[in-house]
Each structure stands twice: as C-alpha cells, then as structure tokens.
Amino acid sequence: MSPTAPADAFVFLGATGDLARKMIFPALYRLVKSKRLDIPVIGVAFSGWDVGRLKQRVTESVVAHGSVDDPRALDALLSLVRYVDGDYNDATTFKRLEIALGNARRPVHYLAIPPGLFATVVKRLGQSSCVRGGRVVVEKPFGHDLASAQQLNGVLQTVFAEDAIYRIDHFLGEEPILNALYARMANSVIDTLFNRQHVARVQITMAEDFGVEDRGAFYDGVGCLLDVVENHVLQIVALLAMDAPAPHVPDALRGSQARLLESIRPLDPADLLRGQYQGYRAIAGVRPDSDVETFVALRLFIDSPRWAGVPFLIRAGKRLPVTATEAVVEFADPPLDVFPQLPAPPGPVGLRFRFHPDAAVALSLRVLAPGRTPPTELSELLLTRRQPESQTPYERLLGAALEGHPALFVRQDTVEACWRVVARVLEKHGPAQPYQPGTWGPSQAADLATPGRWIDPRPG
After folding, report:
1. 144 carries an active-site annotation
2. Catalytic hit among 65, 170, 198, 232
3. Where are the chain's structural domains?
4. Is the N or the C terminus of the chain less surrounded, counting Cβ atoms within 10 Å?
5. Roughly what angle, to the nearest 10 degrees, separates helices 146-156 and 412-427?
C-alpha cells in the first residue's frame, strides 16, 4: 500500500495489556468521536478472552482514563471491535487473524507488545497473508544500543519496507513539542536568532519530583539516560536546532531532524554526570548494589556551521524539586557593556519553551526597575499560554498512522543517530553519584554549566 493511503483495518497486538487500557482505547474512542476511525479494530492477545470480555475492557478503559461525553461514539467503537485470542508463537493464531481481516487490504498492525516478541510476531505476520498492503507501528524502545536497533530494523524490513514502518514515540505527539517547532520556524524574528552568533547556550530540563515507585525491576535495567535522554530529549534538541525543511520535498521534516542528530558530537565521558537518589536501592526490584542512574547532566555539542561551539546543557532525572520539562535558549550578551555604572546583569536574556505540565513560550528581557535596589531586573514576557489540547498524543499519533502521515514518527536513520550520540558513554562512564531526593542532583552537576549556572524550572 502507499505509505499515505488510509488504512482499512486496525490490528492491535497486545490488546489486553496496560498500554491498551491506559492510553490506546481512550485514544481510539476520541478518534471515533472525531469521525476519524470507522474501520474494524481487531484486538489480538494470548489471554483466554473473548470479544465480549475485550469490549468490557474497552468500556472500563474509556470510563477510567477518558471521559464518555458521547455515548454514541463509545457504542460505535464497540461495534468495530473484534478479537483473536492465541499464542504469538502459534501460526494458527495468524490464520484466525487472516479470517478476521476479511477483505481488508490496507491493515495497520500496531505492536503494543514487549520488544522481545517483535521478531516472533513480525515473522508470523510475514508467513501469513495478514500483512497484505499494510504497515506496522512499533513502540519504543527501538533496541538497547546501536547494534540491537539495527538488528530490530533488519527484522522489521524482512516484511515491511522502511516507509511502511512507523516507529512511535508518544513524546512527538505532544502538542507543546510541535508548538515549539512552529513558534521558531513560523516567526523569522525568532528563527534568525537561532545560531552561534546570537545563542550562548541552550538548556533542556526534564525533571520529575517522583521516584521509580513500583517500576524498580524495569527501571534498573534501563536508567535515566536510555529512558528519556536518548530519545525524548534528543528529539527536543533536533526540533530546536535543525535547519528548516524544504516544503516541497517529501519527508523533508524528518530528513532535517536526521541531519541535525547526525551532526551531534558523540558524548564524551567527561561531559556526562550520573546520579542516583538516596533510597533508590531499597525499591523492590532494584539490585542492592545498583549503579543505575536516576539523574543525568550532560553537555552536548553540534558540529555544524549554525551551532559550532554552542553547548547544549541537558538535565533529566527523578526525585527532583519539581515535575517540569522545558528548554531555555540563552541569548548572547551584547559585545559592549554600555552601562558600566549599573550592577551586573541580573540574568541571561532567553526564550523559554515550557512543555510539561503546563505549556508556554516566554521571553526574558533585562529592564530597569526604577526606585528599586538593585535597579535592574529580569522580566519575563509570556508570549503564549496553555490551551486545552484538542488531541492527546496517542490520538494524534494513531490517527496519523491510520491516515498514512509519517512525519510524526521516528525514521531509522534518526534512531541510529541517537544511539551513536550515547554509544561511548553506555559503557565508559563514572559511577553514579548520590543525591538527596528533592534536590537538583549531585552538586558536581554545577561544573557542567560553568561558566554560568543551571536555570531551574518553576513548579508547574
């Protein structure tokens, strides 16, 4: 099928799992309500369920994790639901899926299953007639290093062409993330400043004030660097720093993202600090001698004419003072201090993009504060406020997958570029330094921001 052709069936492998219950069924309900989904939704799982039990789960999910403000839309969704129960290792499961697909010729196969099952399921799809002219949607993680990402891609491409592989990262479906790209590129007064002549450095913070909680076994096999930096944070870097895509070139947006990520210098161990909050090792599922990081601070450099020499400072972690994700573009100081009689400037002039939990774009400027001591201050002008999101991330992404719009999905060259950025420090790094919960990580993180300091996000 053409990568831009609309789907005529949605095959949902892993339909009885937590991701389905918390995210996917509410998103499908919203797609039905907005008239974007009217094709069969075929759930596949190995749970001993029948279609009645799956429909019950759909209803429970939408009620608990969405809002049923249109009962007719929920009834319409339930009327679309089908179910195939069976072991993914059993070829007869996919024979039953062939029957459930009926005359569908452009199915979307969504793999909401553990990565360890990808190869088995893709192989079975390829051996059956289920693929037809369809495409596949794959959840991250896309491997655990460069070699495994390439191996996973090799498995996928035994059955699907690259333009039929939609790698889903829910972060790219967040409306504030897309707004940052638009605000930059749709306003030349901003975009012309985004280069080494005008930007002193860029700071990105992805902070959570909560800990690992009941995800100890999972998190202890991943850590902060792979959980959010290698994927989510590098995507923010790409959107803030990439060159404008050519509007007449197919897939130009993702091409610009890939070129930017490929120009990031591989991380040096000296530019990375790892931390672990005190009490982490006492969590169920965490090894008592674990060195897994719950905090990272790092310094990136982009080797391109636009950004050469500009540090990108990144912090991410758990049990920090606030829950917030934001980026601050610090603009360079004037070449001359024409007000030597006044105190030192109160802080850097900068453009702030707030992504979570609220959304905003704001500009900080130095101004006089008559009658005050000191007589200068940093004043922030709020350019945009948060508006209620018209779409949830999974609604936006699944809708795009069904309609054949790949721009919001991760391409393989981007996946590999991200892995190359972190490859060196996956094995070669210092030990995780302890830090107190509720602080901004180990004190050594301040050294990475020198000269200058980290800009702490305000509470949401």
Report:
1. no
2. 232
3. 9-168, 172-391+412-448
4. C
5. 150
